[in-house]
Amino acid sequence: MDMNMRKFTVRRFFSVYLRKKSRSKSASLSKLEDDGLVKEIDISHHVKEGFEKADPSQFELLKILGQGSYGKVFLVRKIKGSDTGQLYAMKVLKKATLKVRDRVRSKMERDILAEVNHPFIVKLHYDFGLSKEAIDHDKRAYSFCGTIEYMAPEVVNRRGHTQSADWWSFGVLMFEMLTGSLPFQGKDRKETMALILNANCHQLFRGFSFVASNLGPDQTPTETSVLAVHPIVQQLHGNNLHFTDGYEIREDIGIGAYSVCKRCVHKISEVEYAVKIIDRSKRDPSEEIEILLRYGQHPNIITLKDVYDDGKYVYLVMELMRGGELLDRILRQKCFSEREASAVLFTITKTVEYLHSQGVVHRDLKPSNILYVDETGNPESIRICDFGFAKQLRAENGLLMTPCYTANFVAPEVLKKQGYDAACDIWSLGILLYTMLAGFTPFANGPDDTPEEILARIGSGKFALTGGNWHTVSDAAKDIVSKMLHVDPHQRLTAPQVLRHPWIVNRETLSQSQLVRQDAMLVKGAMAATYFALNRSPQAPKLEPVLSSCLAQRRGMKRLTSTRL
User: Which SUPFAM superfamilies match (predicted)?
Assistant: First the structure.
């Protein structure tokens, strides 16, 4: 067949095909042009006959073959599948830049290539539907496509979205599977989009994995408690719905104002854990649980293993800290040097910096809440524990505040409070550092000091940097201590500034001479007295008899004068 006959055959084939397609497409195209609206275009996947379904990740971009006003053609190589190594031409259209007419024409082109099988017409081997691979430098997509109920807010508002939009859709799917309904579904598309854009932090699943049976520390399982168990907990724990079904409770480890910590053993694995049993009538542990679940994978934050909730008590199962409290170990250590103190502070501050960067403040960083997970004493085995007073910065709608979101959308007074709490964490680390270096606490001389005396010393901002170990401690150590314990929280060092301080950066040059310490019980007593003074409730004002007030005395004088008259 010569070239002219070949062209005639293809032209006749196309004219017949397009005449049939135009009848069904012309009406919808004219309506789109008349309305001037952007409509969703339904595009399904196309798979090469005899091959599996493909996606953009299975192709390697080699070079650009051509470029048009709203798309590019790439030379690509298949890197996965049975046709690995095969070269293809891939046409990539930027849907956000297509006008209505162009979108419809692109859809028609795709349909034609999918249906036409002619030896002299280019073949469509793969089509990825609505998939998007970020080829642009900003790595953001701007397409408005997909099922509206599953779209993320950033897709709906068309300000650009990344791969995180797929996780939103996955969350919607999970919500639908668990509840049988969609989280955002209005009577029409407009209302559904409004619900998505105004999404509030839904309380339905808040704590859903923490709910267990009605079982207190001294109670036994009952049939009524089993009926109250949330069905999701049955999926999480199987038939072991009660804490005592899965664990054996052993001796006390520590006792606090709102909770008791005990050693426990998992019945099947015989692994030892620590369980913190919290009285819900005294404190709501929801914030602590969420923070531990969210950030407990950090190597220096205690790991939360399991949670049970019976409505009266909450059981937090955590890794067992076999190495004991940080201060206990340091005071027992035969040789503790300035270099070791710097390594300890670096590990703790690095963890605190991570928490602060995530909008979390601990607010109770006393030495008893910093423990070793094992007996090695290595700084890497340090764990920050007890997040009972910790807070996560949140927006008004309950959503977590990431660092990039915070500056633009949080009220100044909220940021100021968050900064104050972060400064309190640094102040607590300053107390710890002072005690490690000096061998005694900065504001309390012993356990018998009254809270009023301790608070007065703290308020003055004065502490000794002379005498004792301070004669042998480096000037850099004195500098960082004084800046971490500055009485003005706005002038206090931040966690990143502490990590950049020369005493931390150049710790390999610090002295390894042994630091002298006071009696361990005396130091621990003074430390406990310091935090008791800080955490105790303000003393109620002492009320005197009403007749002793100046107003009552003046009125008494007036009555006396009027009687005499």
Answer: Protein kinase-like (PK-like) (SSF56112)
Weakest mean pLDDT among 195-199, 290-294, 488-492, 546-550: 546-550
In a domain, 556, yes or no: no
Cα separation, 210 vs 335, whole angstroms: 44
Q: What is the DSSP string of 284-316?
A: --HHHHHHHHHHTTSTTBPPEEEEEE-SSEEEE
* CA–CA dist 46, 125 (Å, integer): 7
DSSP state of 77: E
Q: Are residues 419 and 490 in the same domain?
A: yes
Whether 369 is catalytic = yes
Tell me if 369 is assigned to some domain.
yes
* Chain segment 48-70, per-residue pLDDT in tens: 566 677 777 788 888 787 776 56
Specify whether 358 is located in the same domain as 498.
Answer: yes
Do 498 and 389 reside in the same domain of the chain?
yes
Q: Which residue has the higher pLDDT, 564 or 424?
A: 424
275 and 407 together in one domain: no
| Residue 188 among the catalytic residues | no
- 434/318 Cα distance (integer angstroms): 30
Q: What is the pTM of this model?
A: 0.54
| Residue 65 is assigned to a ligand binding site | yes
Active site residue 448: no
Q: Of the residues 78, 132, 262, 366, which is catalytic?
A: 366
Q: How many domains does the chain have?
A: 4
Looking at the structure, do residues 509 and 400 belong to the same domain, yes or no? yes
User: What does the alpha-carbon distance between residue 343 and residue 379 come to, in Å, rounded to a whole number?
Assistant: 7
DSSP classification of residue 396: T
Percent of the chain whose predicted confidence (pLDDT) is above 90: 19
- List 192, 351, 369, 435, catalytic entry: 369
- Tell me: do 312 and 339 sit in the same domain: no
Domain-embedded: residue 559: no
